[in-house]
Design goal:
Blueprint: E1 19-23, H1 26-33, E2 37-45, E3 48-55, E4 58-63, H2 69-81, E5 86-95, E6 105-114, E7 128-129, H3 132-145, E8 149-157, H4 181-187, E9 192-194, H5 197-207, E10 210-220, H6 231-250
Parallel strand pairs: 1-4, 1-5, 5-10, 6-8, 8-9
Antiparallel strand pairs: 2-3, 3-4, 5-9, 6-7, 6-10
Bound molecules: 1-O-phosphono-alpha-D-ribofuranose and uracil.
Uracil binds near residues 93, 160, 218 and 219.
Function: Catalyzes the reversible phosphorylytic cleavage of uridine to uracil and ribose-1-phosphate.
Keywords: Cytoplasm, Glycosyltransferase, Transferase
Family: Belongs to the PNP/UDP phosphorylase family.
């Protein structure tokens, strides 16, 4: 088989892996790989840092998506061509409900499609819904590890600043369409903001692939706009949860 265009890998490179862990941050790929047995770096190209390792002897791929839907859609498409059918996103996030605390883990059942890329896969009426069994494994993982977690709907935006209604910016202006949007999502019981799950869920649901997403809370937007917590501690908890979910899925 030819190498896929962006990731630069062939099916043989993945050694039969069918499950991928997909963080946004490229540097996180390496940190996750260190929890696997015999990790090797397969490629580092653009925002895609790709590792292969083993979890209880099953091959697992880790591939960063970069920030946002367009690069996520490339990673998912090319990984699917290479044999990946299950995608576990592990991200960071901003909570918008007052009862959610920094350091909690949020498991997304579905996402509000505030992205553009998902519309290249399915019309806006199509739900950005996670895979039930894959998401259940994430919930079970959090429960078994005693991690404080919340399960619900996520708003997934193309932008970090206006799409998430941040005013503490260069211009201080948010265009009218997004003014009041955070309050509306709060009223509609949306848990949080992040930037990749709408594309990931829509694309995977439309293509018959399985996707789930969990994220560690870096900031509670009812209290402040920009995160200032210990990023690494929050990430470590989320990584522990996603690896446990992968282990549960691979043991079935
Ligand atoms: O920590 P990651 O996985 O990158 O996820 C979140 O962090 C980035 C924004 O800071 C966006 O990618 C958002 O979805
Ligand atoms: O508030 C936040 C924090 C992390 N990632 C986001 O997209 N938003």
């Amino acid at each position: 088989m030819e190498k896929v265009f962006h990731l630069g890998l062939t099916k043989a490179d993945l050694q039969g892996a069918s499950l991928a862990i997909v963080p946004g941050d490229p540097e996180r790929s390496k940190r996750i790989s260190e929890y696997l047995d015999s990790p090797v770096c397969l490629a580092q190209t653009r925002e895609f840092h790709i590792y292969l390792g083993f979890l209880n002897e099953s091959p697992v791929v880790i591939c960063s998506t970069g920030i946002g839907g367009p690069s996520t859609s490339i990673a998912v498409e090319e990984l699917a061509q290479l044999g990946i059918t299950t995608f576990l996103r592990i991200g960071t996030t901003g909570a918008i409900q007052p009862h959610i605390n920094e350091g909690d883990i949020l498991v997304s059942t579905a996402s509000v499609r505030l992205d553009g890329a998902s519309q290249h896969f399915a019309p806006i009426e199509f739900p950005a819904v996670s895979d039930f069994h894959t998401t259940s494994a994430m919930v079970q993982a959090c429960e078994s590890l005693g991690i404080t977690h919340h399960v619900g709907v996520t708003a997934s935006s193309d932008t970090f600043y206006p799409g998430q209604e941040r005013y503490d910016t260069y211009s201080g202006y948010v265009r009218k369409a997004y003014q009041g949007s955070c309050a509306e999502w709060q009223k509609l019981n949306v848990m949080n903001y992040e930037m990749e799950s709408a594309t990931l869920f829509t694309m995977c649901a439309a293509l018959g692939l399985k996707a789930a997403c969990l994220a560690g809370v870096l900031v509670n937007r009812t209290r402040q706009e920009i995160p200032n917590v210990d990023h690494q501690a929050v990430e470590k908890k989320a990584v522990t949860a996603v690896l446990k979910a992968a282990e549960l899925l691979l043991s079935k």
